Amino acid sequence: MSNKLEDEDWDLLLRRIKDGKCTPFLGAGVCAGKIPVYSQIASKWAKDYDYPMKDSDDLIQVAQFVAVTADTMTPKEEICKKIREKLKEVAPSYFDNPYELHRVLADLPLPVYITTNYDDLMEQALKSRDKTPIQEICRWNKYAMQFKRTSSDYVPTREKPLVFHLYGTYEIKGSLVLTEYDYLDFLAAISRTATLSKQNILPLRIQEAFTDTSLLFLGYRIADWDFHVLFRILADYLKERDRMHISVQLVPGNVSEDRKEKAQKYLIKYFSDLNIHVYWQDCCEFVKELRKRWTEKERAEKEQAEKEWAEKEAFNHGT
């Protein structure tokens, strides 16, 4: 498995982006440095609530323990409070950095962005680029149902893109898919509508993105629940269309090269039927390369258009 995309993969990805036929998926890894890493939150909770198991850095398991020993809403209230505090530290000027991950994505001409994160950094980045993002969430439980629906005639555009929060938003605590029970209930809610219309849970525009665009997954780890649940949901959609998708997986830390190689082979098998090209690369490095190649593509197309216009003008004046 390569750590970087081949030129032909880049060419296809850039064409899909230009046509608005690419949908980014944002995982927890894209927020490193802005929102506390989930393992850090889990470790703190494990200490505060005297978590007895060894996997004290597993947020889902620790959150489940807190939900059982305290109450269901406690871990959601605490993580929403933490996110709200950290978001106050993110000034608008943060997105002035042309290589900031959310900024790079916001500069692309895309109509739909999907995130499994609870924060609104993608929306903030889009606003900083003079776009008007519309936020929607997956209505998997009674709390998420309280979120105001977008107009039925709304069509996502490059100027007015849709940002869809699959696992809820910090603005509605009960909408979060956080604990082990939440993930099971979430899957059950999706499965119950498998043979019926899913629009009450997954808007039609999101289902169309699943089937009619190339998906770009950023900031996920192979062992994370949010990763596995996400692909369990997407599997049936991806099998319906023969499009290339890309997953930039976060490189596992503190493991031997031999175990990394075994994990890579597992990933190849895991994605073998879904036409997903998998690469292990730092997300920030990936989007820097994306920025560079996208800028070069736009410049080349502009120069070509100017050359063709000049040739046409010269021909007209010559005749």
Write a structural description.
The chain is α/β, with parallel strands linked by helices and 319 residues long. The protein has one domain (7-34, 90-318). Helices cover 47% and strands 11% of the residues. The protein contains 11 helices and 7 strands. A 7-stranded parallel β-sheet has the order 3-4-2-1-5-6-7. Helix 9 links the parallel strand 5 (214-220) and strand 6 (245-249). The longest helix has 36 residues, at 283-318. The radius of gyration is 21 Å and the shape is globular. The protein starts with 6 loop residues before the first helix and ends with a helix. 34% of the residues are buried. The mean pLDDT is 87.
Write the layout of secondary structure elements.
Layout: H1 7-18, E1 22-26, H2 38-48, H3 59-69, H4 74-87, H5 101-106, E2 112-115, H6 121-128, E3 134-137, E4 162-165, H7 180-192, H8 204-212, E5 214-220, H9 225-239, E6 245-249, H10 257-270, E7 276-280, H11 283-318
Parallel strand pairs: 1-2, 1-5, 2-4, 3-4, 5-6, 6-7
Tags for this entry?
alpha/beta; 7-stranded parallel beta sheet; 11 helices; 47% helix; DHS-like_NAD/FAD-binding_dom
Summarize the structure.
Helix content is 47%, strand content 11%. It is of the alpha/beta class and 319 residues long. It has one domain.
Q: Main beta sheet, described?
A: 7 strands, parallel
Q: Which H/E pattern describes the elements?
A: HEHHHHEHEEHHEHEHEH
Number of helices: 11
Low-confidence stretches: none
Binned, the helix content reads 40-55%
Secondary-structure-based class equals alpha/beta
- State which percent range the strand residues make up: 5-15%
Task: Supply Rg.
Answer: 21 Å
* Biggest β-sheet: strands ordered side by side in the sheet: 3-4-2-1-5-6-7
Please tell me the overall pLDDT.
Answer: 87
Tell the overall outline. Answer: globular
Cα distance spanning the termini: 57 Å
Q: Work out the number of β strands.
A: 7
Number of self-contained structural domains: 1
